[in-house]
Amino acid sequence: MSPSADFPSAGESTRGEDDIIKRIAAILGRGPIPRGERHIGDDAAVLTPFVGQALVSTDVAVLGVHLDGSLFPLEDLGFKAVAAAVSDLAAMGGRPKGAVIAVSSPPGTDLEELHRGIGDAAVITGCPIVGGDLTSSRDVSVAVTVFGECPGKDAVLRSGARPGEKILVTGPLGRSAAGLRRRRAGASLTDELVVAHRRPWPRLAEGIAARGAGASAMMDLSDGLGLDLHRLADASHVGFVLDHVPVAEGATEEEAIGGGEDYELLIVTPNVERLRMIFADRGLRQPIQIGWTVENVTERTLGGEPFQRRGWQHQF
Amino acid sequence: MSPSADFPSAGESTRGEDDIIKRIAAILGRGPIPRGERHIGDDAAVLTPFVGQALVSTDVAVLGVHLDGSLFPLEDLGFKAVAAAVSDLAAMGGRPKGAVIAVSSPPGTDLEELHRGIGDAAVITGCPIVGGDLTSSRDVSVAVTVFGECPGKDAVLRSGARPGEKILVTGPLGRSAAGLRRRRAGASLTDELVVAHRRPWPRLAEGIAARGAGASAMMDLSDGLGLDLHRLADASHVGFVLDHVPVAEGATEEEAIGGGEDYELLIVTPNVERLRMIFADRGLRQPIQIGWTVENVTERTLGGEPFQRRGWQHQF
Fold first, then answer.
1. How far apart are the CA of B265 and the nearest CA of chain A, in angstroms?
2. Which ipTM value was assigned to this complex?
3. Which of A25, B159, B213, B219 is deepest in the core (most CB within 10 A)?
4. How far A96 CA sits from the closest chain B CA (Å)?
5. Closest-CA residue of chain A to B39
6. Which overall architecture, per CATH, does domain B166-306 show?
7. Taking the domain B14-150, which CATH number applies?
């Protein structure tokens, strides 16, 4: 669209835009560009062929909706947007190949700070930013589209779980929600749980390991176990019996179940020993078994009590 | 991010959200899904492997910035956002493989109308919508990320033109700007030039033909020849001599040069006969030769006069 600035336009735009785009490109372009690829600088980015299935996912983060700008710096919006999108690749067992970002903002927005967060997440997740678009709007928003590849076995879907399989998570839950609560109560930005909220860590290595280990179904816990496990069970047409939910230190059980944004992986597998062995071989923290799947799709319990749907909801 | 609705969440969201997402999925999912692919319905969409180089581009359209809602229906925002992104694939000689969309909007937005425009553009360009994200914001915005493949030869970059090659465009220019002017003066939405503005047509077949014909450099005219030709010349380190600019019927020369959003392709080639032959073989309208490249990068003229940079600019 015309009144916007693709990064490629950098060379011939107005002086101010030129400067900003150059500085952004310097912030984002911190890694080497793979041979045969071409990132920022043309109508579209050019990537080498994908290995195996190609995965694509998109996520938007809006200031004031996904991040409270009075509690957190703007760079967190960029970091979280990229991390959330990359986590969707982890959830399929994919390996990131790159991302494009579309940033909309009103005049006066600190675009360098925002892109510093984007760039940090790109470096940490090994997902280079290969292109983007800048445009004007009243809201500050970051739309991230990530793409990944699946060498070897196919991607792990939500829908592959069968009755009688084990359900595991890659870590204790509720850290992000607890961090948000603590920040609201005045904790510093460097408080450990606040950092967990600000700097979610996509479980890429765990997702790849689980795919290799023959996991039957998988997803990332972005909206909380109380919603996401139901989603997986719905897609797979199974019920489930949970014996416990691992609550992170400093979090409440409510935060562990309904909190969201933990981005731990939820894994279902017919062969938990193989999963444990592969995680051990790769030096990954052992996943925590929380229950098993059952044939009756309406049987959904935690400690013998009905396990209700709860977590983030959205109204239009 | 949590307070948003990936399409995959459809099944277990609130009733209202569920309904809207189902209706949107019905609007978007009009084509068959290729064997082995999985679109809306999981953490990420799964696509079959890309043939040759993979291309990715992203574009955002914001209501009130890219489209005047008092002059045009909301579906035009969706259509134009997709068409503009697909045109970036055409500009490289790519073939669309799919797109993901991220829509942000305030409560009360007619999301069905917006997605009707998105779906129409997807069908017309043969670029299926394979996933998306819905979120809340004050502005209505559509971020589109398209990906394409390049069977055979590599993608055509902006930077490959050499001195002494011919410069062509795929059609007369200025239709979009003329349509916007006419609409502002009261012309109906079905006026031919107004339709050209509302329903831009990415030159996919032409781009693929030009790549096959050995074009050395290419881009799409999104911001107007007065900016885009300079961009191509800058990237290729060449100058140019134009003998004329083809002005579309009903448009002014100013609109043809500075108007933008025509999405005709700008092609540079060392072998114009081969280009013409391949276009003829495929039943495509013959491209129009407008000039040639020269070695002196500062020599940039139209009819012997300096050809100034002009067209859409953006301020931050």
1. 11
2. 0.80
3. B219
4. 12
5. A56
6. Alpha-Beta Complex (3.90)
7. 3.30.1330.10
